[in-house]
Please model this.
Amino acid sequence: MPRVTIDGKIIEVQKGSTILDSARQIGIDIPTLCFRDGYEPSTSCMVCIVKVGNRIVPSCATKVEDGMEIESETEEILEARRTALELLLSDHAGDCIAPCQSVCPAGMNIPLMIRQIANGDLKDAIMTVKEDIPLPAVLGRICPAPCEKGCRRGSYDNPVSICLLKRYVADVDLSTESPYMPVCESESGKRVAIVGSGPAGLSSAYYLLQYGHACTIFDDHEKPGGALQYDIPEDRLPRKSLDDEIKIIEKLGAKFQLNKRIDTIESLKDKYDAILIATGQNKSILPEKTKIDRNTLQTDIDGVFIAGNVIGRRTNMAVRSVADGKISANSIDQYLNSLPITGVLKAFTVRMGNLPEFELHKFVETASQIDRIVPSDAFSDDEAVAESLRCLHCDCRRADNCRLRDYSDIYNANPNKYKGQRRPYDQQSQHSEIIYEPGKCISCGLCVQITSKSKESLGLTFIGRGFTVRVGVPFNQTIKEGLQKVARECVEACPTGALAFK
Model:
């Protein structure tokens, strides 16, 4: 059997094995996009490259030879893989996350919530909302809705009523006998003091309790809620909505010490493992020269973190304070577990930006054509579903299952490195189960091989030549005619979001 050296390790491999096979044999993970076991390698993506002597070769198609010395993790190879990914991204037409979600300060998965409302899955919808927003009944009433300013539908007629849909989901949940309660990890034995019971403090407690940390919230007022309780008129924010959402945080285990003023951090340091300052505009509890890491919300005082308007932002939005609460909770949890403090890392994303009219119409033609519904007070069930159907679903249906995105994140690829004129956005939705977005296709050919192997009557094929080659259905037929037998297999094989289930 041939003996080869991979990254300094000498191994014996089966004759006829590829370098990729050999690397996997000893647990070395070489990225692949266009390769799939059981199919012929196309060597089109070039992210699986390695170095053999002075040559750079695709590991998926290169057979091992006795005495080969292979390098898979040098800086040269990592940079070459990054370049291969950046070249693929330069022609990518599609958004990883929808514009509405990308501009939401809390990063809520708005399109998923809307799909769940449209399908009547309100229990799943409240879980989606509360993944990022612990106070949706409150924010559904007072948020200035930056997400709606980012809604792509607004460029066509009127944006989707995202804020009212969020409020609808929250109100329905609170009206049930058992409102949604997230699962909490077992008690960690760690204690966190939170100074301030406004949106930032409440939000941080909501997530810290799920991590298993005990939370005590201090406030010098008679009731919790901070500015939500005392600065917003009742006609804008009924106190019952606020109180009901605070009760859920209390049921999770939060302890409140009200009418209790904290003047110094030192008074808490001996009793608590970490401290969060979330006192709104009041900064009196901090030393004047306190430094803050804006990404993690950690201060230069050991074990002390900060969140909300005490940071000193120009804009005063509760949704931003709620987002700070989640970031600070994540950072505090990392601190309490002696992990590197990174806060909440942002996932890799590609954005198309503003679309020309013909591309916008590709989205609009798959959505309801009714105009924005504006209820006198709140949505009825039927109105909520009808408004949900106006969503253009700009997000990628496979954002959480896209190897192009995953590897771009791992290799720190810059989607704008080779900025040029991308291909036009298109989507083909004639099929009952799947959708095809050619602009996300990297021409790996896996679906072409699958349809050929299954003897689809039409199947898929390469159309065009050179840089303009694309995968499509022969004879200008639709994806419905092309994939009659193996649509599911093609979706599962696709390394990007080009083929996805509806």
The mean pLDDT is 95. The chain is about 35% helix and 10% strand. The two ends are 48 Å apart (CA to CA).
